[in-house]
Amino acid sequence: MTNAIACGQHLTPKRIVFSGDTGIFFTHKQEIELLVKFKQFEGCKLEKAKWEKYAMDADLQIDKEREAYDYLNIQYDNILIVSKDFQKKYNDEYTAHENTKSELKIQIGKKRTWIKIAAASLTANIGLIYILTR
Questions:
Q1: Residue partners of 14: CB distance under 8 A and separation at least 6
Q2: Quick one: pLDDT at residue 98?
Q3: Cα–Cα dist 44/57, whole Å
Q4: How far apart are the first and last CA of the chain?
Q5: Among candidates 23, 50, 48, which has minimal Cα distance to 34?
Q6: How far apart are CA 87 and CA 51, in angstroms?
Q7: Cβ pair 43, 26 in contact under 8 A
């Protein structure tokens, strides 16, 4: 339909041309609204593409962070094994040191006892020699 007469008025619909396609008839107001919607749709497509790229980049970053975390976790486990080994060695050394200290106290006690015995024996021998030589 190219034109019509209604109630004595001559009506000619406006043809919209969008992307080379001229098959739709709208009023001027409808044409503007449709063009605005098309532009908004194109903007939404661009925004969607940006968000998809952002999501892909975020996924890649998360993968990198996960790899770094896994590597650090492995390093932590290795260091934990080494620290447990050092702790065991320290405890063994501490136990050996404490045993050595207790053995040393026992030996010092024995030495003091022998010194007392030797001093008493010497005093007794000197006393006997004094008594015998008199």
A1: 25, 26, 27, 28, 31
A2: 94
A3: 20
A4: 163
A5: 23
A6: 51
A7: no
pLDDT tens column, 77-114: 999 999 999 999 999 999 999 999 999 999 998 888 98
Indicate the residue type of 28. Answer: H
- CB distance 69 to 77 below 8 Å: no
3-state secondary structure of 101: helix
Q: Is 1 within 8 Å of 13 (Cβ atoms)?
A: yes
Token pair recorded at residue 54: 């952002």
d(CA 4, CA 13): 9
Which residue reads 């605005």 in tokens?
36
Contacts of residue 35, defined as CB under 8 A and 6 or more positions apart, other chains included, come to 16, 18
Rounded Cα–Cα distance for residues 40 and 55 (Å): 22
**How many other CB atoms are found less than 10 A from the CB of residue 81?**
10
Return phi, psi of residue 10, to 5°: -90, 115
Q: Is the pLDDT of residue 12 over 80?
A: no
Residue 89 corresponds to which amino acid?
K
pLDDT tens-digit series, residues 37-49: 999 999 999 999 9
Of residues 11, 33, 35, the one with CA closest to residue 21 = 35
